[in-house]
Amino acid sequence: MPPNLGNGEQYHNVQLYGVLMKKPFAHQSSKWSKRFFIIKDGFLLYYSDGEKKEFEKKRFFNIHPKGAIPLGGCDIQPVEENGHPFSIHITNDNFNGVVALSTDTGFERDKWVNMLRISSRVTFKNSQLGEAMIQQLEDQGLQMAQDKHDLYGQLQTEATALQAEKEKTEELERIQAEMEKEKEEMEQLSEDLRSEYDKLKEEMKLTAEAMQNIEEDKHELMNTTSNLQANIEALAKEKEKTLGELRERQNVANKLSQEKEDLSKNTDELKEMLKKIEDQMQRLHDDRMQAENRLRENEEQSVVLQEEKNSISDHATELEESIKELTTQKQITENELKEEVKARYEAENRLKVANESLSKLDKTLMVAGTTQSDGNKTYSYSENAQEEMSQSVKNLKRFFENVAFEAQLDAKKPVLMKNALNTRKAYVRRAKTLRYEARKQTSKTRSTATIMHSTRMHASASSE
Fold first, then answer.
1. Is CB count within 10 Å lower at the N or C end of the chain?
2. Would you say residue 350 has pLDDT above 50?
3. 210, exposed or middle or buried, with CB in 10 Å at 0-12, 13-18, 19+?
4. pLDDT score recorded for residue 438
5. Which of 405, 362, 395, 349 is nearest to 154 (CA)?
6. Mean pLDDT for the chain overall
7. Which residue ranges have biased composition labelled Polar residues (predicted)?
8. For the chain, what is the largest distance between any 2 Cα atoms, rounded to a whole number of angstroms?
9. Helix, strand, or coil (residue 87)
10. How many CB atoms lie within 10 A of CB 74?
11. CA gap 197, 194 in Å, rounded
């Protein structure tokens, strides 16, 4: 394979290239295969279909094709074959068979047929006649080539500037792709925050229901405590009454010693009943203390739940502020993206105007007449040519001034740094959310432990 030519000479001397279907030549097989074809200087060269990528990448063709068909004097006809309606037949008296090709569309077939027919006119005789004409044209164009060579140095600098502008446009496209990616990440983060907000709302609802149940238990315990207090007071009255009866009976016993033996039995029974009443009062007192402890624990749990509710409310407020900030940042990013796209379109339009000015300037220099004076070369241009050249130079000057101004603006506006800072803020907010969830889990564990301790104490008191 020949070395890569920097100016792409072999690439530009190719008249037409592309991938076509080809039927085997000079035998009866009907199997079609994909091949990469090149029309160059009156020859049809073909390679394997994978050669196209190498050709477009390296900008020169392999000098060792699978086959080379001379097109001089060939007959090119569009035909239709079974399964290939857009076929081409190439025949020649010197060929032992027909070269059959096929394209995908009628437009491509017409393009290939036209170029093949043009290339078939290049015979040995035509090439001999063309050599004299080429020599004459070279002599006539020698002076114009010299003028173009003198202008080449000036246009080379301008072409370099245009290449830099093209690279800048590609950089803007890359930045736009990165901004699109950041936009998708921010939208995903916003969606996650909304999900967390909905989850917190549901947890606040469950917390409110739990507090309501605790309030109901508190009222029930207070009612139970009131009932126990009333029973204790009734038993105390009954005790006083029993003691009064005991004193009366003791007095009667002192007066009626004869009936002492009969009454002693009743006195023992009353003492035993008094003991039972005192035991029952002690149990009621213990139940009252346990109820007060449960009430105190419920009040502590209510305080903890109230603190958790306040924490959840504060976090929900922070989430709402984060969503607002993300919405604002998303709008800012979209506006900046629109400005970048608008600036890109304006730069392309200015580049197009600059290219048109270069084309007009080149055409004016090529068309302008030349005269000889004392052996030195002098040039004369018409007024229209001078006016077109002046206008083209002004357009180019305006284009390069705009390029310099935009470069200054880009240096003062680092968009990527701003986007990186906003992304870091979003990560900080996410870290705060994770810390809040950890605190909430710890508080929930502490509340569960308190409830289990209260349940064990109640069960122990009930068993006693």
1. C
2. yes
3. middle
4. 75
5. 362
6. 76
7. 444-453
8. 179
9. strand
10. 22
11. 5
